[in-house]
Design goal:
- With about 250 residues, the chain is mainly α.
- The protein folds into 2 domains: about 5-60, no CATH class; about 70-235, MetI-like fold.
- Helices cover about 70% and strands about 0% of the residues.
- The protein is built from 14 helices and no strands.
- α1 (about 5-35) packs across α14 (about 245-254) and α4 crosses α8.
Length: about 250
C-alpha cells in the first residue's frame, strides 16, 4: 500500500480541524452565553472576538435560576421517567412480537408483518388527531401514560427484533423444545440473551425519540406536572419575548 505523504496528512487533518471548528462554534457560543449573566448576553456578540466564546466572569446563576425558579429539574425527571418506561415496555412488547413473527408459523403472518412495516413509514404527525382522540376516550390524556404508550407501539423496533431472531438458528429452539422447554422459556432464556445487539439499538433509538419529543407532549398534556424537557426549553421562547439566558442554560442542561 502506498504510504501517504506526511504533508498531505497534515493538510488533511488541518482541513478536518477547520471543518470541525466551524460546526463547534455555535455550540461553544451557546455554552459561553449560558455561563454569562443574563444582562451582558450580547455584549461580545458583535464584533466577534475571543471574548465572544470565553466568558470573562463565568457564573452558574442561569442554571440555578432554571432549576430553582422554573422547576427545570422536574422536567428532567419527567423526561427520564417517560424515556426509561418506554424503553422497558418497548423491549418487552417488540421482542415478543419480533420473536413470534420470526419463529412461529400462522395464518396472516405475512400480512401482519407488512402492516408492521407500514406503521413506521407513516409520519407521526399524520396520526396525532386519531391518537389524541384515542387517549381521550381511554381517559389517559394529561398523564404519564399518554406520553409513554404511543412510543411503545414501535414498528421499527419490532422489525429489528424480527430480523435479528430470524438469523438465530432454529435448531437451538428445537433442541430446547425437545428438552421440554416452553416457548416462553425459550424466548426468555435463549432469545433475549442472544439479542443484546438489537436491544442496545432499540434502547438508543427509543431514548433519543422520547427525550427529543416536543410535538406530542404539547398535544397530550397541559399540566406543568407532566412537562418534559423539550417543552420546558420551548417555553422560554415566544413571539413577544425570549429569555435567551434561560433558553441557552436549559438547552445545555437538557
Amino acid at each position: 500500500m502506498k504510504k501517504r505523504s506526511p504533508w498531505k496528512t497534515l493538510v488533511l487533518f488541518a482541513i478536518l480541524g477547520i471543518i470541525s471548528l466551524f460546526f463547534l462554534i455555535p455550540l461553544i457560543w451557546v455554552i459561553a452565553s449560558a455561563l454569562r449573566p443574563a444582562s451582558p448576553l450580547y455584549e461580545y456578540a458583535n464584533p466577534l472576538t475571543w471574548r465572544t466564546f470565553v466568558p470573562t466572569n463565568p457564573t452558574l446563576e442561569n442554571f440555578v435560576h432554571i432549576f430553582v425558579n422554573l422547576n427545570f429539574g422536574r422536567a428532567l425527571m419527567n423526561s427520564l421517567l417517560v424515556s426509561v418506561s418506554t424503553i422497558l415496555l418497548t423491549i418487552l412488547v417488540a421482542s415478543m412480537a419480533g420473536f413470534a413473527l420470526a419463529k412461529f408459523e400462522f395464518r396472516g403472518k405475512a400480512a401482519l408483518f407488512t402492516i408492521v412495516l407500514i406503521t413506521f413509514m407513516v409520519p407521526f404527525e399524520s396520526i396525532v388527531i386519531p391518537l389524541y382522540i384515542l387517549i381521550k376516550q381511554l381517559r389517559i390524556d394529561n398523564t404519564y401514560w399518554a406520553l409513554i404508550l404511543p412510543g411503545v407501539a414501535n414498528g421499527l423496533a419490532i422489525f429489528l427484533f424480527r430480523q435479528f431472531f430470524s438469523e438465530v438458528p432454529s435448531e437451538i429452539m428445537e433442541a430446547a423444545r425437545i428438552d421440554g422447554a416452553s416457548w416462553f422459556r425459550i424466548y426468555w432464556k435463549i432469545a433475549i440473551p442472544l439479542s443484546v445487539p438489537a436491544i442496545v439499538t432499540v434502547i438508543v433509538m427509543v431514548f433519543m425519540f422520547q427525550w427529543n419529543s416536543l410535538f406530542w407532549p404539547l398535544v397530550a398534556t397541559h399540566s406543568s406536572r407532566f412537562e418534559v424537557v423539550q417543552v420546558a426549553i420551548a417555553a422560554h421562547r415566544s413571539t413577544e419575548n425570549t429569555s435567551w439566558a434561560n433558553l441557552f442554560s436549559s438547552a445545555i442542561a437538557g
